[in-house]
Amino acid sequence: MTGAVPIDALEARAYRIPTDAPEADGTLDWDATTLVVVTAVAGGVRGMGYAYTDAAAAGIVSGTLAGDVLGEGAMDVPRLWERMRRRVRNMGVSGIAASAISAVDTALWDLKAGLIGLPLAALWGARRERIAIYGSGGFTSHDDARLAEQLGFRVREDGCGRVKMKIGADLRVEERRMHVAREAIGDAALMIDSNGACTPCAALALAEVADGFGVDWYEEPVTSDDVEGLARVRAGLPAAIDCAAGEYVWGPHDARRLLEARAVDCLQLDATRALGYTGFLQAAALAEAFAVPISAHTAPALHLPVCLAAPGCRHVEWFHDHVRIEAMLLDGAPVPRDGAIAPNGRPGHGLTFEAKDADRFAV
Question: Cα 269 to chain center, whole Å?
């Protein structure tokens, strides 16, 4: 142990929270979201982190990662991050293991900042005082009325200057759905996300239609596993439309592949998948070196402090499911004001998990 104050507890629990209605995107449908919450304790201070992932991640935290964290110094977060990455070498660092590491890493950073008594953005060095949000929902399972209501609400009530809708489940209806969305949001910017559902040719054809509705962001037009195809689409998009991807970046090395291929105009990063705050900040630094801006994917409450500190951060996704869950279960969750969110001034990320409120969802 090199850092002062040993970590004397590390716990993980999983919760399955039903959606408020059936949801779907271009490649998947679901009716619940699983949240894995990690608590780390040192010196009588508790740190909390979480990831939206499979419940199996809780077992990896308790059964695989805990041995590399317990008894170690709470100030040595980067060193513990390296130890956890090595520990999962043989199971693979991507996927559930990455989500487990992410939840522990964010808990450890919250713990460290709590021990010091500083908000995380101040600990890292804040570049901005607030971060813009964009409304996100518009699921392919929604009928036109619900699509219009949900996207319009984000503009009217949250002050979002841009909103994103899901597309790709049925390419024959997307022109109509984009028309409905445009009517509902007025002059706000419209973003689309096909979650990798399209081939490069289909994505480019759909982009021509989207351009007519003033769309300026096309997310995962093809799967980000097809880096060459993604770069091809980016090169062929109308000039006004940015190509975005990165929600399945499992760490800085994955981010580098997208950046080196010149596959994105904006790199999305998710601290609940990309190896936590540590991985997020490393990937953000890589993006800055490539002169590519970043955007945080979902989990807005968790992303708020890192978005205040990361270079080149445009905005954070105000995702319908996660906004609802975080408002229910996190004391201190941010509330939008004029299309942006700001920290509450508390130490760490400023969030407290309401375990009693969550018990009914425990797995």
Answer: 6
Give the integer Cα–Cα distance in Å for 263 and 233: 8
Closest CA to 84 of 111, 63, 53, 113: 63
Q: How far is CA 17 from CA 12, 32, 107, 144, 363, in A?
A: 16, 5, 21, 25, 10
pLDDT per position as a tens digit, 219-253: 999 999 999 999 999 999 999 999 999 999 999 99
Q: What is the pLDDT of residues 265-290, one digit of tens each?
A: 999 999 999 999 999 999 999 999 99
Q: Give the domain CATH number at 213.
A: 3.20.20.120
Q: Is residue 36 situated within a structural domain? A: yes
Q: Which domain holds residue 71?
A: 7-117+356-361
Q: What is the pTM of this model?
A: 0.97
SS3 (DSSP) at 11: strand
Q: Give CA–CA dist 301/323, Å, rounded.
A: 8
User: Please, are residues 144 and 180 in contact by the beta-carbon 8 Å criterion?
Assistant: yes
DSSP bridge partners of 16? 34
Quick one: DSSP state of residue 277?
A: H
